[in-house]
């Protein structure tokens, strides 16, 4: 048995050599999806989250889940929770529509047009959906009472052969056989495990928020704008991203029908809208960007698009100031493989990327499913480092391919600096 100084004895599982006890640092999308998959496989898991509660951070506004994210959710979640996501998530046409600043179409990019249908999954959820990020986070937390602990800020770890000990800011520790860094772009675990791995500032800044999708606005938006994503590129590398978040079924109604234990609260259709430009062209220094109230951020963007099409100006004018926040666009720099051990990483903790390809969360979910499957399918007695090596091989290839793809998109649309070589 692995004693754990932080947990009541009833939830510390009996440990056999081939039965890992997994410590996950971070209850973001990747960490929670991993915990769900491990629970389904009967593998002991505990998740430690720095935030005091799930309500502390607005979990962002909206996510596009692609075929890889869908596969991961289907593999790791209990069927009722997967069906709940499939039922409420919006199903816009699977394309990205391009426009110029006068709202003239500049092209349409079909997403995965050659994707082979998967009829079993398609019946529940198509390969591309759009979902409110907070709702997805809430669903991923379901059933993890006693598994996730909030207010636990991990500050480092120690490895003593087969046992890894996580240390927390409150002085407590937790012991397991595998430590997984799912602690996002600023990962403390990565800083210790891979001190040579770098995260760089791409030079681009985003201002991100919601616009209520009122009946009037809905009627005025061109049909083509009800795509997964709309990319408006104006002169001087100004970028406006517009993404409808339309529920297919009211989240509360879908939950009542499919998973009554999940409380999703009220939710309204909206547009997730982000403006992006290079920091030196934004007219706002980093310090002011970080501290400015939403109204000021909105005014800055209104100034930036003063000569754009009236509908685009209206959308920005209707931004709900209380939802606005700035994003510094950063990216990891791909690193070569390392010697695997009982400390591994997933998602943004290892391959954080520019949001320009909308891929980061999908990759975090994909990693979570791959790691859960590797652990669940490992031959009895297989050395943990071998299991982790197999996971890391594919995770690094797919994760850093997505980092490079996202960076190339960001260079084109947001004027990001190219990735350093
Ligand atoms: C504007 C924007 C739009 C995006 N849109 C999309 C999209 O449409 N589709 C997509 O796939 N991706 C998108 N992304 C990317 C996506 O948000 C991230 O890639 C994804 O959230 C990564 O998930 P994660 O679980 O790895 O990390 P995170 O979601 O960052 O979770 C990390 C968790 O770890 C916790 N933590 C951190 N440090 C510690 C510590 N020391 N101890 C304990 N806990 C800790 C944090 O509080 C957090 O809860 C977007 C990103 C941005 C900025």
Write up what this structure looks like:
With 421 residues, the chain is an alpha/beta fold. It is built from 14 helices and 17 strands. It has 2 domains: 9-92 and 126-200 and 332-414, FAD/NAD(P)-binding domain, CATH 3.50.50; 201-329, 2-Layer Sandwich (D-Amino Acid Oxidase, Chain A, domain 2). Helices cover 34% and strands 24% of the residues. The protein has a 7-stranded mixed β-sheet, sandwiched between helices. Strands 7-2-1-11-17 form a 5-stranded parallel β-sheet. It starts with 20 loop residues before the first strand and ends in a 7-residue tail after the last helix. Mean pLDDT is 92; it is low at 1-17. Flavin-adenine dinucleotide binds at residues 25-31, 48-51, 60, 63-64, 153-154, 182-184, 188, 206, 208, 274, 327, 347-349, 355, 358-362, 364.
Helix and strand arrangement:
Layout lengths: L20 E5 L3 H12 L3 E5 L13 E4 L1 H10 L2 H10 L6 E6 L4 E6 L8 H6 L4 E4 H9 L6 E2 L4 E7 L2 E6 L4 E4 L1 E4 L6 H6 L5 E14 L2 H6 L8 E6 L3 E8 L5 H8 L11 E9 L7 H6 L2 H11 L5 H8 L7 E8 L10 E3 L2 H4 L8 H18 L6 H31 L7
Parallel strand pairs: 1-2, 1-11, 2-7, 4-13, 11-17
Antiparallel strand pairs: 3-6, 4-5, 8-9, 9-10, 12-15, 12-16, 13-14, 14-15
Bound molecules: flavin-adenine dinucleotide.
What features would you highlight for this structure?
421 residues, alpha/beta, FAD/NAD(P)-binding domain, D-Amino Acid Oxidase, Chain A, domain 2, 2 domains, five-stranded parallel β-sheet, 34% helix, globular, binds flavin-adenine dinucleotide
> What's the domain count?
2
Q: Based on DSSP secondary structure assignment, what is the total number of beta strands?
A: 17
Whole-number mean pLDDT: 92
Provide the CATH superfamily of the largest domain: FAD/NAD(P)-binding domain
Percent in helix: 25-40%
């Amino acid at each position: 048995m692995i004693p754990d100084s932080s947990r009541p004895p009833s939830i510390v599982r009996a440990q056999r050599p081939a039965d890992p006890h997994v410590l996950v640092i971070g209850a973001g999308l990747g960490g929670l999806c991993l915990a769900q998959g491990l629970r389904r496989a009967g593998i002991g898991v505990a998740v430690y989250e720095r935030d005091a509660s799930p309500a502390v951070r607005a979990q962002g506004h909206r996510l596009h889940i692609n075929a890889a994210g869908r596969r991961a959710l289907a593999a790791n979640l209990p069927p009722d929770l997967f069906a709940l996501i499939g039922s409420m998530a919006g199903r816009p046409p699977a394309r990205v529509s391009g426009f110029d600043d006068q709202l003239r179409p500049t092209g349409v990019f079909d997403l995965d047009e050659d994707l082979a249908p998967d009829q079993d999954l398609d019946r529940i959820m198509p390969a591309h959906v759009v979902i409110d990020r907070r709702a997805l986070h809430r669903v991923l937390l379901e059933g993890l009472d006693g598994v996730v602990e909030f207010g636990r800020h991990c500050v480092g770890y120690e490895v003593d052969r087969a046992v890894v000990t996580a240390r927390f800011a409150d002085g407590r520790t937790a012991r397991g056989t595998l430590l997984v860094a799912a602690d996002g772009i600023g990962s403390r675990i990565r800083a210790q495990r891979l001190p040579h791995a770098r995260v760089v500032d791409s030079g681009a800044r985003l201002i991100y928020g919601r616009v209520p999708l009122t009946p009037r606005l809905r009627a005025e938006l061109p049909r083509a704008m009800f795509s997964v994503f709309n990319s408006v590129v104006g002169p001087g590398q100004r970028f406006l991203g517009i993404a409808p978040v339309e529920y297919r079924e009211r989240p509360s109604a879908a939950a009542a029908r499919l998973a009554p234990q999940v409380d999703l609260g009220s939710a309204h259709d909206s547009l997730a809208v982000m403006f992006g430009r290079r920091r030196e062209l934004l007219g706002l220094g980093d310090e002011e960007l970080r501290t400015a109230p939403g109204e000021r951020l909105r005014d800055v963007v209104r100034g930036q698009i003063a000569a754009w099409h009236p509908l685009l100006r209206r959308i920005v004018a209707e931004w709900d100031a209380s939802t606005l926040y700035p994003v510094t666009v950063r990216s990891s720099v791909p690193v070569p493989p390392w010697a695997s051990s009982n400390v591994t990483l997933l998602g943004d903790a290892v391959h954080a990327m520019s949001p320009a390809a909308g891929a980061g969360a999908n990759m975090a979910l994909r990693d979570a499913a791959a790691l859960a499957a590797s652990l669940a399918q490992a031959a009895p007695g297989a050395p943990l480092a071998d299991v982790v090596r197999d996971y890391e091989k594919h995770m690094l290839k797919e994760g850093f391919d997505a980092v490079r793809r996202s960076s190339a998109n960001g260079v084109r649309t947001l004027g990001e600096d190219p990735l350093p070589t």
